[in-house]
Amino acid sequence: MIDGRIVDKLIGRRSHEGSLQYLVCWYGVPEEDATWVNAEKLVRIFISVV
User: Fold this and answer.
1) Domains of the chain and CATH, by start
2) Cα separations (Å) of 3 from 15, 17, 18, 37, 49?
3) What are the φ and ψ backbone dihedral angles of 35, each rounded to 5 degrees?
4) pLDDT tens, position by position, for the chain (50 residues)?
5) C-alpha dihedral (13, 9, 38, 29), degrees to nearest 10
6) Less Cβ crowding at N or C end of the chain, within 10 Å?
7) Cα separation, 25 vs 42, whole angstroms
């Protein structure tokens, strides 16, 4: 969960301003409303859940 939203799936990746980002599709939200999230933020969140 990030900012109160649940990650459904990752649908893309890019390098932006020297950082790796993933395009996150959120649970219950249309795919066209996916948002870019820094990879290190995703890793921190996922590690804290495991």
Assistant:
1) 7-49 (2.40.50.40)
2) 22, 22, 23, 11, 14
3) -130, 155
4) 777 888 999 999 999 999 999 999 999 999 999 999 999 988 887 777 66
5) 110
6) C
7) 13
